[in-house]
Write a structure and sequence with these properties.
Bound molecules: pyridoxal-5'-phosphate
Strand order of the largest sheet: 2-8-7-6-5-3-4
Order of helices and strands: EHHHEHEHEHEHEHEEHHHEEHEHHEHH
Shape: globular
Strand content: 5-15%
Structural class: alpha/beta
Number of helices: 16
Mean pLDDT: 95
Number of strands: 12
Length: 390
């Protein structure tokens, strides 16, 4: 019998939900007007964007005027860091972030360092939780911006965002969070969390690729990084990706309407993997928290004496799609910067496996992983020179 494909790489991207696609389709070739034009065809596009902006704002408890549509999560991160750093540099040039951010944040921080900004990269503990004492100590009179991700894309750790919002209350420090992995599964109220800027990306919650959001709280000094027309309240020039924006809002609304049921399903499957894989395979460790302080869909591991890439190739032969480290670092021999920051020894970090679940995964998919993974690891270890020295 042919097995269906077990896609377990939802942290890398997700399939567009059929209902999302259906909502997008009219905006390609029927309702194709440029939202900035004057006739009624354009009005339909403008209305669609206005509606999408309201939907997104309602979900994160923001004002629609605070929502900027972008081309992806990476653009949102870039625009947030550069836009806030450049607009506020008269007050200081110090930025605080963490060692486990996505490269869209880390590489942007490195670029800002070349432009005269100073960046503190906070350490994390063995579970990947940012050190709040280190954060408090890092704050200086010239600190203008703190950027800490809401949840980590490799190991699923949920960061203490509300606590950071509390720490900076009463200061002039601007707080940005990369919520790309968290959107859809964690409840988000930007005011309650004390956030001034937030990034998200549609393709991580069953929306299309190539569209994202940057939330920027009113009153926050922000310098647009893309200039041209006056779109997005003069904060991001360029004719809007109308179908993409409609898709993003539709997918986000579906994610929050169904959040409880989707999370319950994901947590059940995740906990089976987290519990049963280390029970079946020796020299295997869960990476990230085991106490539930992790994304509902993330199950990550390290296996001693094997290469992560080899595990992925073998899983693929059984119709299982997974990832090792982050999608962006795989292909390079550098071990993950996230596992390194969590003080996982380099030799072990090479054997990392991330299974990131989605709404359409089934018990059967998990059964298959549990059935094939022990043999894969044993086979690889038998061939490994590392294992023989044991
Ligand atoms: C995927 C991801 C991004 C980048 O989003 P794109 O839309 O792919 O550019 C940024 N941050 C995190 C945490 C992510 O998981």
């Amino acid at each position: 019998m042919e097995q269906d494909f077990a896609y377990m790489d939802h942290a890398a991207t997700t399939a567009v939900d059929p209902k999302v696609l259906e909502a997008m389709l009219p905006y390609f070739s029927e309702k194709y007007g440029n939202p900035s034009s004057i006739y009624s065809l354009a009005g339909e596009s403008r209305q669609a964007i206005d509606d999408a902006r309201k939907t997104v704002a309602e979900i994160i408890k923001a004002d629609p005027r605070e929502i900027i549509f972008t081309s992806c999560g990476s653009e949102s991160d870039n625009a947030a860091l550069r836009g806030i750093a450049y607009a506020n540099q008269a007050r200081g040039k110090h930025i605080i972030t963490t060692q486990i951010e996505h490269h869209a944040i880390l590489h942007t921080c490195q670029a800002l360092e070349k432009r005269g900004f100073e960046v503190t990269y906070l350490p994390v503990n063995h579970d990947g939780v940012v050190d709040l004492e280190a954060l408090k100590k890092a704050i200086r009179p010239d600190t203008i911006l703190i950027s800490v991700m809401m949840a980590n894309n490799e190991v699923g750790t949920v960061e203490p965002i509300a606590e950071i919002g509390e720490i900076i209350k009463g200061t002039q420090i601007i707080f940005h969070t990369d919520a790309v992995q968290a959107m859809g599964s964690l409840p988000i109220d930007v005011n309650e969390l004390g956030i001034h800027a937030l990034s998200m990306s549609a393709h991580k919650f069953y929306g299309p690729k190539g569209v994202g959001v940057l939330y920027v709280k009113r009153g926050t000094r922000f310098e647009p990084q893309q200039t041209g027309g006056g779109q997005e309240n003069r904060r991001r020039a360029g004719t809007e990706n109308v179908p993409g924006i409609v898709g993003l809002a539709t997918a986000l609304k579906m994610a929050y309407d169904n959040r409880k049921e989707r999370n319950a399903h994901l947590i059940h499957l995740r906990d089976r993997l987290l519990k049963e894989i280390p029970a079946k395979i020796e020299l295997c460790h869960v990476s990230g928290p085991v106490d539930g302080n992790r994304l509902p869909n993330n199950a990550s591991f390290v296996f001693e004496q094997v290469e992560g890439e080899s595990i992925l190739l073998h899983l693929d032969m059984y119709g299982i799609a997974a990832s090792s480290g982050s999608a962006c670092t795989s292909g390079s021999l550098e071990p993950s910067h996230v596992l390194k920051a969590m003080s996982i020894p380099i030799e072990i970090a090479h054997g990392s496996l991330r299974l990131s679940l989605g709404k359409d995964n089934t018990e059967e998919h998990v059964d298959r992983v549990l059935e094939v993974l022990p043999n894969i690891i044993n086979t690889l270890r038998a061939m490994s020179p590392l294992a023989n020295s044991h």
